[in-house]
Amino acid sequence: MGRASKREEIAQAALRQFQAKGFNATGVNDITTAAGVPKGSFYNHFSSKEESALEALNRYAAGLRFDMLTTPGRPPLERLRAHFEYLGRDTLDNGFAGGCLAGNFGAEMADHNEQIRSAVQRGFGRWAEHIQGVLTEAREAGELAGALDVADTALFILSAWEGALIAARADKSAAPVEAFFRLVFGVILR
Fold first, then answer.
1. DSSP string, 132-186
2. Does any domain span residue 1?
3. How many whole angstroms separate alpha carbon 118 and alpha carbon 124?
4. I need a labelling partner for 146 at 20 to 30 A (CA). Which of 42, 56, 75, 84 fits?
């Protein structure tokens, strides 16, 4: 019987290491040690650390629960709030450590690695499109003022969220996340 592939263990370890340490502070040895595999196993499944980072971004995005934004049965703005509440709980549960992997990679790597910058840009673009879709539904349902530009508002909400996560990490406090909810849902989308 052949040996099981270690790709899954390596990919999961890479995601955890990149989220905990960032791209530059994570070495292939860190990933393989966390996965419990020899260093050579990494290169059987990934051609480079960059390739494993791109896989980590894909896995991270899959955990963002975009399905919460499109699940029928709840009003659009309620779904949007539930999505960000879910993400906020993760931030609080992790003691304000880690943050958003896409935001972290964007801040750390956008000026130094075109492949990662482009992947982050595409990920943020998809996320903003999901938010824009919810805002469009909310406007059509009469929950939002018709004059509100949903594309700009979606980009602003996503940018505000990423900023709130950075500030929460720096402050080791929920205050920035709480301010995000008060302003976005209590003022802008009211």
1. HHHHHHHHHTTSS-TTS-HHHHHHHHHHHHHHHHHHHHHHTSSHHHHHHHHHIII
2. no
3. 10
4. 84
pLDDT for the residue numbered 174: 93
Cβ pair 145, 80 in contact under 8 A: no
Overall size of the chain counted in residues: 190
CATH code, 52: 1.10.10.60
Contact criterion met (CB below 8 Å) for 166 and 103: yes
CA dihedral 84, 65, 159, 165 (to 10 degrees): 60
The answer to whether 117 and 54 have CB atoms below 8 angstroms apart is no
Please tell me whether residues 146 and 129 are part of one structural domain: yes
| Range(s) of the domain holding residue 77 | 64-188
pLDDT at position 3? 52
Q: Which residue has the tokens 């703005």?
A: 77
Nearest alpha-carbon partner for 13 in 159, 177, 30: 30
* CA dist., res. 118 & res. 114, Å (int): 6
